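Quick check before the chapter quiz. The format below is the same one you will see on the exam, so make sure you can read both the input and the output lines.
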Amino acid sequence: ASVRNETLVQTTEEQLKEFLTRNGVNYSSWGRWGSRSLSSLVEEINEGESRLISTNNGVVRDVQSALIDLYFQNGEKRFWLESETHREKIRSNEHTISGKIQVRFGESPEEGAYRELKEELGFTGIVLLKAEAQEVTPRVKPSHIYPGLQSVIQGFLFTGDLTHELYVPHGYVNKEIKDGVTVTTYFKWKEV
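Here is the expected output.
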């Protein structure tokens, strides 16, 4: 007796459990084996970073994501800030910041990208970002962080050049705890 085309944009943990159960989603393994917890999804929804939609094909997690590539010009040499995330396993990221922070609903992609720079790298100085591309056709794929859900991710790609004031030659490190696991992202410069 699932309800189709119901959208969840604010919730409590109890309401989320009822919504998932009503729509046939088993969340019993969430928070283990590299997946995120139920409370993480509640926070994500309440922060406006995602919403859940029940459809005929199951429950879809709708997400908008800002992807950022940062560069620094030093004389004739140009460097790209690459990143590597360590959370139980090491993952090389395709972009400097690969949409780890979602664009909130009601927030422009540019606002999300600047918030992401501040939260990931602590940049409060001016970084001019240029919109490069928008993924016109969002991808629908099974969610690895919330097994049993589908994710629709619309990505917005930005590039930016760092000023000398923000440039740190040895790179940057960001550590945070997600669901009891320390997630460390190392940002280092690579000549391109």
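If your answer matched, good. The chain is about 15% helix and 45% strand.
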